[in-house]
Amino acid sequence: MQWAVKRYLVATALILLVAFFAVFITSRERISLEYFPIETKPVRVLTCFSSSDTSLRVTTENLCPDGLIPLGSSALVESATASGEIKEIHPLLQNRFDAAKAAALSDGVHLYITSGFRSYARQKYLFEREIQIRGSETEAAKWVLPPNFSHHPHGLAIDVNYPGDPTGAKWLEDNGSRFGLCRVYANEWWHFEGAIAPGELCPAMSPNALVDLG
Ligand SMILES: [Zn+2]
């Protein structure tokens, strides 16, 4: 009888020991996983536009399916090449505008770009002309930025339906976020930039362009 009790106790001790090591090893595993977390890659969602039915589709592939135009997967904040080499509106900004224009047309609204890419020389001329009109560089910069600050010479800004059609531009202000387009200045109803990824919310507007430089 005593022998049986001893065997019972030894068996219990062994089971407890094994259980203890099992818990110890799995908890070590948990801890070590925390120290070496599995890297998760963010999924970039490319938004594509169908000009035949003006619908937007999203894909996690790098390319839009045949026949759809890409609108991109992020805000357009920097052009790919040095500013001196840029001669046109950034292709994705152009695609976003073309998509918005087609969607606006199906709502009976005509959108058009009145000024997109501007050379440094052109922007410099416009800034200097604005100084004459407004009386100082500070006042001028609220309306036309100096060439080294404006996004127009980078192909990253468009003026839409200026000067005669604020109503058309209002359509873009209300609907542009679907296409990654935002009005960015409270004093310029015509100026739009690709400030967000398509489908995100546009940030609050700055009072004017000069405030953004601060
Ligand atoms: Zn502008």
Give your account of this protein's structure.
The protein is an alpha+beta fold. It folds into two domains: about 1-40; about 75-210, Muramoyl-pentapeptide Carboxypeptidase, domain 2 (2-Layer Sandwich), CATH 3.30.1380.10. The chain contains six helices and seven strands, in the order αβββαβααβαββα. The protein has helices at about 1-35, 90-105, 120-135, 135-140, 165-175, 210; strands spanning about 45-50, 55-60, 70, 115, 155-160, 180-185, 190-195. A four-stranded antiparallel beta sheet has the order 4-5-7-6. The protein has a three-stranded antiparallel beta sheet with strand order 2-1-3. β6 and β7 (about 190-195) form a beta hairpin. The radius of gyration is 29 Å and the shape is elongated. It starts with a helix and ends with a helix. Zinc ion (ZN) binds near residues 159 and 191. Zinc ion (ZN) binds near residues 152, 157, 159 and 191.
Bound molecules: zinc ion
Beta content comes to 5-15%
The domain count comes to 2
Largest sheet features: 4 strands, antiparallel
CATH class of the largest domain: Alpha Beta
Would you tell me the structural class of the helices and strands? alpha+beta
Mean pLDDT: 88
CATH topology of the largest domain: Muramoyl-pentapeptide Carboxypeptidase, domain 2
Which regions have little confidence, pLDDT < 50, spanning 5+ residues? none
Output the helix-strand order.
HEEEHEHHEHEEH
CATH architectural designation of the largest domain? 2-Layer Sandwich
Determine the N-to-C terminus distance: 89 Å
Features:
peptidase activity, binds zinc ion, elongated, single chain, Zn_M74/Hedgehog-like, 214 residues, Muramoyl-pentapeptide Carboxypeptidase, domain 2, four-stranded antiparallel sheet
